C-alpha cells in the first residue's frame, strides 16, 4: 500500500495493538541478547557496535532527521483526536526505541556482523594460545629427553671420575650444601618419627652422625694406623684423627682438587696426624699388612673391579685389623632383574660415572674368598640413610641463592640434572632396587702368611 494509506491505517491502532507491538520489540531484543548468553550479551552488543559503528551512527542521524521532519509536518496538520494522538505517540515511541537499539549496536541487520567480529577477534587469540601451548609441550619433551639421557658414563678409567670430583670441589657448591662429607647421612627411627620428620635434622650433622655410627659399628678400639680409601675432602679422615689422636690417618683420593682442599682444611683445624695423597685405590703404594683399620665409605661405587677393590684393601690391612665398607649396592639376585630395572640401574651407572653396582651379599662373598678375612658381616642400612636423598634436594630448595647468584645457566642446568638423579636414587633405594650395604671383616692372618699357605696348597695339588 502507499505510504499515506499505510500511515493512516497505523494511526487507527488501538492501545492494545500499541502495547503488543512494544512487547514484540522487547522480546526481539531479549532474543538477540540471549544469543550470547547471560553476562556475555553485553560483550556481544559491544562487538556488534564496534563492527558496525559507522552504520549505527549514520542510521542514528537519519532517524533523527526523519523524526524532526515528521514531527514538523504533523504539528502543522495536527487534529486533536484521540486516535491521531495515539498514532503520534506510537510512532514517537517506536523511533525512540529504534534509536536506542541503534545506539546499542543491536539490530537484526547487524547480528551477522557482530558474530563475524566476535569470531575474528577470538580465533587469533585461540590460535596464539594453542601455538604457545604446543611450544611449551615440545620444549618440555626436549628437556625431559635430555634429562633422561645420562651424560657422564664411566669411560674405562678413573680420569673421568677424577675430573668430575675436581669440578665439584672447585665450584664449591657441593661443599656448601653437603659440608665436608660426600656421603649419605644417618637418621635414627626416632628422628624420622618426630614432627617435621627427617628434614628437621641438620643435613650436615646427619653426615657426621653417620661417620660416628659407622665407627661404632666397626668395633675398633685403638687403631694405630688408619687408611681412608676415597677420602673426598677429608671430612671422615679428620673425625678419625680427632677420635684417635695418637693414630696416623692417611686419606687417598683420585681427585687432586680434593687432596688440596682436604689438606687445607686439616691445616686450618691444626691437625698434624692426618695427611692426604693422590692415589689409585686399586694400586696403592703401601706395603702389605700396614693398617689396623681400612675404611672405605662410598668409594666402591666407582670401582670397575669390585673384587680387586676388596683384595687390595685386604692386602694392606694388618693381621687382626678391621676392614669396613659402606657402599651403594643393587639388590642381590635371584630374582633376576626385569628390563625396566636394568634400565633404571643403567641410568644410575651412566649419570654419575659408575661402572656397575653389586649386592652387599656379593661383597661378603668376595671378602670370604680372600681366605684371610673372617667374622664377615653384612647389613642393609637403607632404613637409616634413605632420607638423605630428598633431604639433599630440600636444602637446595630452602637455600637456592648460592646457585642463583652465580648467574651461570650451565651451572643451573647441571644442578637440575643433579636434582633429577638424586630423586631417581631415592626411588631406587625406596623400591628395593638398591640397598645401602655395610660390610666388615677381620683379617685373621698376614698377607705374607696367606700367600705362603696358598703356594703350599697349589704345590700339593700338582
Automatic annotation (TrEMBL):
Chain intervals for the UniProt region annotation (Disordered): 1-22
Key words of the record: Membrane, Methyltransferase, S-adenosyl-L-methionine, Transferase, Transmembrane, Transmembrane helix
Gene3D superfamilies: Vaccinia Virus protein VP39
Region annotation SAM motif II: where it falls in the sequence: 289-297
GO-annotated molecular function: methyltransferase activity
GO biological process: methylation
Residue span(s) of domain Methyltransferase: 225-369
PROSITE patterns on file: SAM_GTMT
A Pfam family this chain is assigned to: Methyltransf_31
InterPro entries, A to Z: Erg6_SMT_methyltransf (IPR050447), Methyltranfer_dom (IPR025714), PiNMT-like (IPR025774), SAM-dependent_MTases_sf (IPR029063)
Listed transmembrane segments: 32-52, 125-143
Region span, SAM motif III: 316-325
Region (SAM motif I): 226-235
UniProt similarity note: Belongs to the class I-like SAM-binding methyltransferase superfamily. gTMT family.
Protein name according to UniProt: 2-methyl-6-phytyl-1,4-hydroquinone methyltransferase
Organism for this UniProt entry: Porphyridium purpureum
